[in-house]
Amino acid sequence: MTVLVITGTGTEVGKTVATAAVAAAAVAAGRSVAVLKPAQTGVLPGEPGDAEEVARLAGAVTAVELARYPDPLAPGTAARRAGLAPVRPERVAEAAGKLAAGHDLVLVEGAGGLLVRFDGEGGTLADAARLLGAPVVVVASAGLGTLNTTELTGRELRSRGLDLLGVVIGSWPDEPDLASRCNLVDLPVVAGAPLLGALPAGVGRGPAAAFRGAARGWLAPRLGGTWDAGVFAAEHVGGV
Predict the structure, then answer these.
(1) Which pLDDT belongs to residue 127?
(2) What distance, in Å, lies between the first and last C-alpha atoms of the chain?
(3) What is the pLDDT of residues 17-49, one digit of tens each?
(4) How far is it, in rounded angstroms, from Cα 217 to Cα 125?
(5) pTM (two decimals)
(6) Which residues neighbour 237 within 8 Å (Cβ) at sequence distance 6 or greater?
(7) Which residue from 40, 108, 137, 192 puts its CA 20 to 30 A from 17's CA?
(8) Distance (Å, rounded) from C-alpha 146 to C-alpha 140?
(9) pLDDT score of 44
(10) 98 included as an active-site residue
(11) Could you give the CA distance from residue 63 to residue 55 in angstroms, rounded to a whole number?
């Protein structure tokens, strides 16, 4: 697995922090890592974007951003409003391929959900994943409502013949409610793919050194970690 595409079930689900955790685990294993952010929106020139945040948390990674648009909107809409060229899936695939030639692992972090449009023709992160032939990790929220968006994302990936590697919960609450605990059982069922990790809420706001030291414990072995979905569920599900 040289290129891994990371998408979310929507915005603000912990996608960047999950990307940073995967990067940190790979770096800790001695792998060279690049993170590619095709389209950064809602960030002004000179401000750190998602790729830079991954690098801050994960350490020695190559951070690449293809385009930046100031409005916090879907990339295609933000590009149109700014009068700037959009980022098309072909450019994403080309950039990821070039990075893969010099790195052990390339992480492509999308914007929002899988079908958020990059351009006026309807190009999406799913199209870039297809061009790359890359597996996809879906970052989902923990609580009520996540089953629907996760199942829809999984179905769309399968309908396109894409490989859904698994689901990562991007922000596991300190005091999970009933829905969150039940979702540990239900998420892999609706996704049709295993749970591959759960990141504690707020870990991206702590010291980077602590983040790097703990990252492997939040991720399953398929993502370079030591996290066990069965053990985690047993600790939290109880009698629900």
Answers:
(1) 97
(2) 36
(3) 999 999 999 999 999 999 999 999 999 888 999
(4) 28
(5) 0.95
(6) 181, 182, 184, 185
(7) 192
(8) 7
(9) 87
(10) no
(11) 6
- Among 148, 132, 157, 109, which Cα is nearest to 6's? 109
pLDDT at 238: 72
Percent of the chain with pLDDT over 90: 95
Query: Which residues share a beta bridge with 69?
Result: 41
Per the structure block, which two tokens stand in for 163? Answer: 């490989």
* DSSP string computed for 71-86: SSS-HHHHHHHHT-PP
Sign of CA dihedral 95, 96, 97, 103: positive
* Helix (H) / strand (E) containing 105: strand 105-113
Q: How confident is the model at residue 240 (pLDDT cuts 50, 70, 90)?
A: low
Helix-then-strand count for the chain, H and E: 9, 7
Residue 239 has a pLDDT of: 52
Q: Which residues, at least 6 apart from 75, have a Cβ–Cβ distance to it below 8 Å?
A: 38, 39, 41, 67, 69, 86, 87, 111, 116, 117, 118, 119
CB neighbours of 34 closer than 8 A, spacing ≥ 6? 61, 62, 63, 64, 99, 100, 102, 103, 105, 106, 107
Contacts of 92 (CB under 8 A, 6+ apart): 36, 38, 66, 108, 118, 125, 128, 131
The string of DSSP letters for 11-24 reads SSSSHHHHHHHHHH
Give 116-150 pLDDT, tens digit per residue: 999 999 999 999 999 999 999 999 999 999 999 99
